[in-house]
Amino acid sequence: MSSLDPERLANELHDGVIQEISALLLQLETYQRILKKDPEAAQTELDRIKKQIRKTLRNLRGILTTLRNSQG
């Protein structure tokens, strides 16, 4: 995303960040279901969730940086 194009921004948010957050919600629901039954599997799932959160934050920061740069 090299410039502030509203349609491209909307697509980037919808296809990127919003989809990633939706996936995180599903992963958290999985984590919640397996927590008591299989703590080891739950820990693996939690590690996966944390990794995905970091990726989502990087993506969102990239979008925000592009927005800032296109405004100035």
Question: What can be said about this structure in brief?
Answer:
By secondary structure, the chain is an all-alpha fold.
Mean pLDDT figure: 89
H-E order: HH
Helical fraction equals over 70%
Structural class: mainly alpha
Beta content: under 5%
Shape: elongated
Distance between the termini: 15 Å
**Radius of gyration, Cα only, in angstroms?**
16 Å
Largest sheet: none
Find the count of extended strands (DSSP E, 2+ residues).
0
Query: Treating each run of at least 4 consecutive H or I residues as one helix, how many helices?
Result: 2
- Unreliable stretches: none
Keywords:
72 residues, mainly alpha, 2 helices
Please render the helix and strand layout as text.
Layout: H1 6-34, H2 39-71
Helix pairs in contact: 1-2
Summarize the structure in words.
By secondary structure, this protein is mainly alpha-helical. The protein has a domain of 46 residues. Helix content is 86%, strand content 0%. The chain contains two helices and no strands. Helix 1 packs antiparallel against helix 2. It is elongated. The two termini are 15 Å apart. 0% of the residues are buried. The mean pLDDT is 89.
